[in-house]
């Protein structure tokens, strides 16, 4: 997949272009449906698929104090687009100039003097100054282009359209399984392993510690079933989000215990996937009570990992 950052870079493309347009901030099942149509249609026209999106949410300019937390880190977002078969990702930098551009001007930049057989958008997508551009405007300006307003994908569990907002809400309240169903993959983050307080070794549950990425939607405090990739290999795991209230002088972090793993990996990069919520964070009256609960959590995680549809390796 090729990543472009300016519309002028499209000038190098000689084949027919099928566009998909949207924020694609979660790359959830609804976004994936749009992308699949774009990729399939580009193949039918012997052309290329171009996804037009932005490097940041409009609130970074319009309401900086209310920027929604991300559901994907930047490199992970690129990887998902590539896995979906996208030929070109046009990732426009979010700016005041971009937001001030009229819908007409924006579409002319994309379509004028180019072979564009089709554009696919979601029914709720608007563009241009104050969101005044829509699919009707594209049809008016370029009647020869087929424009498909794809209906929003609905999910049976919530009987509502899948949205990044709904997924963020699920993550923030710890409903990871619902979030994963809407994403079509496990919620995950990638980070560097940092040194912890070494207490896990004493308890018999050594952990990898992480500072959870500030820009991401942070799962509710509690214990989760994980899968962790480090040094190219996946491990089942059980992790905890929180500040470990059983002990004093703690800080908020994510720590996860990998099964059948004992390597020293401080400073290495790992990817952590969330598969299920086990329980909320609890302050225990004794170390033995904590150890007993951790054994129960491990048993739960091992059982879940045997049956998850997202099992790695």
Quick description:
The protein contains 10 helices and 14 strands. With 313 residues, it is an alpha/beta fold.
Write a structural description.
The chain is of the alpha/beta class. The protein folds into two domains: about 150 residues, 3-Layer(aba) Sandwich (Rossmann fold); about 130 residues, Elongation Factor Tu (Ef-tu), domain 3, CATH 2.40.30.30. It contains ten helices and 14 strands. A six-stranded parallel β-sheet has the order 1-4-3-2-5-6, sandwiched between helices. It has a six-stranded antiparallel β-sheet with strand order 9-14-11-12-13-10. A hairpin with a 4-residue loop joins β7 and β8. It is elongated. It starts with a strand and ends in a 6-residue tail after the last helix.
What is the terminal separation in angstroms? 25 Å
* Structural class designation: alpha/beta
Specify the CATH homologous superfamily of the largest domain: HUPs
> What is the CATH topology assignment of the largest domain?
Rossmann fold
Elements, N to C (H/E)? EEHEHHEHHEHEEEHHEHEEEEEH
Number of strands: 14
Could you say how many structural domains there are in total?
Answer: 2
How large is the count of helical segments?
10
What's the CATH architecture name of the largest domain? 3-Layer(aba) Sandwich
Strand order within the widest beta sheet: 1-4-3-2-5-6
Give the overall average pLDDT: 92
- Classified by CATH, the class of the largest domain is Alpha Beta
Could you tell me the strand content as a percent range?
25-35%
Contiguous low-pLDDT stretches (5 residues minimum) are: none
The radius of gyration is 22 Å
């Amino acid at each position: 997949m090729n990543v472009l950052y300016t519309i002028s870079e499209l000038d190098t493309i000689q084949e027919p272009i099928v566009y998909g347009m949207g924020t694609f901030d979660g790359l959830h099942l609804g976004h994936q449906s749009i992308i699949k149509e774009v990729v399939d249609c580009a193949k039918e026209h012997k052309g290329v698929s171009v996804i037009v999106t932005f490097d940041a949410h409009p609130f970074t300019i319009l309401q900086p104090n209310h920027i929604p937390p991300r559901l994907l880190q930047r490199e992970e977002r690129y990887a998902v687009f590539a896995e979906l078969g996208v030929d070109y990702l046009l990732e426009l930098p979010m700016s005041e100039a971009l937001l001030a551009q009229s819908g007409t001007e924006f579409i002319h930049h994309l379509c004028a003097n180019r072979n564009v057989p089709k554009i696919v958008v979601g029914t709720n997508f608007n563009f241009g100054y104050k969101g005044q551009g829509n699919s009707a405007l594209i049809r008016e300006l370029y009647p020869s282009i087929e424009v498909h307003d794809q209906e929003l994908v609905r999910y049976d569990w919530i009987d509502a359209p899948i949205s990044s907002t709904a997924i963020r809400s699920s993550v923030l309240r710890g409903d990871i399984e619902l979030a994963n169903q809407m994403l079509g993959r496990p919620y995950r983050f990638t980070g560097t392993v940092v040194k912890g307080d070494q207490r896990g070794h004493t308890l018999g549950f050594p952990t990898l510690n992480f500072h959870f990425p500030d820009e991401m939607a942070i799962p509710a405090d509690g214990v989760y079933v994980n899968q962790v990739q480090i040094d190219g290999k996946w491990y089942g795991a059980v992790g905890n989000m929180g500040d470990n209230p059983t002990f004093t002088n703690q800080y908020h972090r994510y720590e996860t215990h990998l099964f059948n793993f004992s390597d020293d990996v401080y400073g290495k990069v790992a990817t952590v996937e969330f598969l299920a919520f086990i329980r909320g964070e609890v302050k225990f009256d004794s170390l033995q009570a904590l150890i007993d609960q951790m054994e129960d959590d491990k048993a739960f995680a091992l059982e879940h990992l045997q049956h998850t549809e997202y099992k790695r390796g």
